[in-house]
Amino acid sequence: MSKVRDNYVLDVSAGRRGYALNRMCGSLTDPENRRRFRADEAAYCDAYGLSPEQKRAILERDWTAMLDLGASIFYTVKLAMVDQKSVQDLGAVFTGMTTEEFTAAMLAGGRRFG
Amino acid sequence: MIWGLATSHVPAIGAAIDHDKTEDSYWKPLFDGYAPARRWMAEHRPDVAVIVYNDHANAVGMDLVPAFGIGTAESYEVADEGWGPRPVPPVIGAPELSEHLVRELLDESFDIATFNRLKVDHGLTVPLSVYCPDPGDAWPCAVVPVLVNVLQYPQPTAARCYALGQALGRAIRSYPRDLKVAVFGTGGMSHQLAGARAGLINEHFDRMFLEEIEHDPESLAALTREDYIEQAGTEGIELIMWLVMRGALGDNIARVHDTYHVPVSNTAAALALFENLGDEADDGRVAA
Question: What is the secondary structure of B187-254 as a DSSP string?
């Protein structure tokens, strides 16, 4: 897993790099698409034209690699929902904490910077 | 225009309402904080709510990203965001007002995209639930959705959002029919979902914003998008949508209520409600 950046901003170039991956995750708002994705994730990724790196990140649920490959959190969160993962689970991944630690940090007023 | 409401639109707020969790210890402080505003709004029912919000990759994809848009439909389906649609009523539009707003804003050089079909997501339905937690079969007002791109950088500047709000206010006031209108500015407060700063909360910035949105919105409009991202987090930039609401209200306002609570999911949540004390007519008179 790559070292996580402080901020991921979906600029136009990230939007271009991540287009296929974001479009694929966005398609999971349709229940029939969710069923097809669950039935064969690899084939579903191929149908949406994901690069080999993007496909690997999806299949391995490498949430940080997805961002590095142009994903927006608003798209990948739909994949997290398919997995019944919460944004606390993802926050824990991005910050190297357990979900319990991340949730406790939020309950304590959130994480402060600067 | 009778009032303006600024409120966070975190999806978990909708889920808490939909699953009867508002009395749980996690949620009670937030919903207790809403109570005085809800009582007041229930006594001041608008005919139409103009709701300034952003879509979260549910109706607007990466194919086409308009900076500003207005829904012009007769009704708006509630979106399935990946976990099934919220169990709330469909949203009824106000297409004649939408058309008026689009025309007036284009005449003022705001080049607005129009949505004839729009599935509305938590960005719009959660603020409706904050206003009206138990709508039964129908929401108590029609809705004009006003969309702002906050997902893709570069977002519209805060200054442009404030100016859009001022033009929106003029457009609402020039509508020839006698309608009571409320304006919602949604999103925020500080939060960041991805990256090493995930979980960011900046209460100092949030408290400053909650104060200045009433007294000095120009200072908030002067902040750059980079300021918002740095101070309030990558998703905290949603706060620029509060400035659209604030611009629409004008200067003759009174704060009815506000509340601030951390955390709601990964977010600092707030509500601020302002009564419009009188629209200034074209001849300078203040009409109640």
Answer: --SSB--SSTTTTB--HHHHHHHHHHHHH-HHHHHTS-HHHHHHHH-TTGGGGHHHHHHHHHH-S-EE
Query: Which pair of structure tokens corresponds to residue B37?
Result: 């505003």
CA trace torsion B244, B248, B249, B251 (10° rounding): 100
What's the pLDDT tens digit per position in A82-99? 999 999 999 999 999 999
> Nearest CA to CA, how far is A30 from chain B (Å)?
7
ipTM of the complex: 0.95
Task: Tell me if residue B191 is catalytic.
Answer: yes
B180 neighbors B2 (Cβ within 8 angstroms): yes
**From the CA of B208, how many Å to the nearest CA of chain A?**
16
pTM of the model: 0.96
Burial of B75 (0-12, 13-18, 19+ CB in 10 A): middle
The verdict on residue A6 lying in a domain is: no
Q: What would the pLDDT profile of B160-216 be if each residue is shown by its tens digit?
A: 999 999 999 999 999 999 999 999 999 999 999 999 999 999 999 999 999 999 999
Best B8, B64, B192 member to test A by mutation, with max A CBs in 10 Å, is: B192
Instruction: Decide which of 3.10.450.50, 3.30.70.20, 3.40.830.10, 3.30.230.10 is the CATH code for B43-168+213-256.
Output: 3.40.830.10
A91 to B198: CB separation less than 8 angstroms, yes or no: yes
